[in-house]
Amino acid sequence: MTEELEYLKHASARGGVVPPSSPPGSGAGVAVGAGGGGGWRNRRSQKLDKMEILTLQSSLHSEIQAKQAVGEELSRTRAELLASQRELVEVRQRLESLSRDMKHKEQHIRDMQARLDQHAPHQPGNSSRSWRWSSPYMPLFIGVTSCLWGVAILVYHQIYD
User: Fold this and answer.
1) 8 Å CB contact between 61 and 67
2) What is the pLDDT of residues 109-161, one digit of tens each?
3) Residue 28 lies in a domain
4) How far apart are the C-alpha atoms of 34 and 140, rounded to whole Å?
């Protein structure tokens, strides 16, 4: 019996299987530790392996979720960027349109002022320039140009602020 115990100790130290040529009754053909002291090591090792696999799976799942969240955020950011770019193009077009309109109106005012200068009677001591500032159309001129400049400044601030 002591011989069999010695043999089992040596076999478990090598981590092997008891050879089939062992004496009968010594557990021939059975893995060392399957019913003895080494079985708990195998079960513990398997349990640790399973825990490690579960931990890795959980970590992988978390990384996948984080990647999906980043992808969704990127999609939202791209959509916002495209919307902002479209809005910027629209505002620039509107600014150009208002600028052309303002230049057209300023030219119209200059033409009307030139016509008034041509038809206005020149009195001695009054230059045509002093007549312009006392013209009844001057408040209209000042109001229109200041209004147009106000709109231009407003649009400018919408674009660049």
Assistant:
1) no
2) 888 888 888 876 555 444 444 444 555 655 556 666 666 777 777 777 777 76
3) no
4) 106
Domain span at 94: 40-160
Which amino acid makes up residue 152?
Answer: A
**Phi, psi of 17, deg, nearest 5:** -105, 145
**Would 135 be classed as within a structural domain?**
yes
Is 71 within a domain? yes
Domain count, the chain: 1
- Taking only the tens place, the pLDDT of each residue in 63-85 is 999 999 999 999 999 999 999 99
Pure H helices in the chain = 2-14, 39-119, 128-133, 138-160
The whole-angstrom separation of Cα 152 and Cα 88 is 15
**2 within domain boundaries:** no
Identity of the residue numbered 90 = E
What pTM was estimated for this model as a whole?
0.42
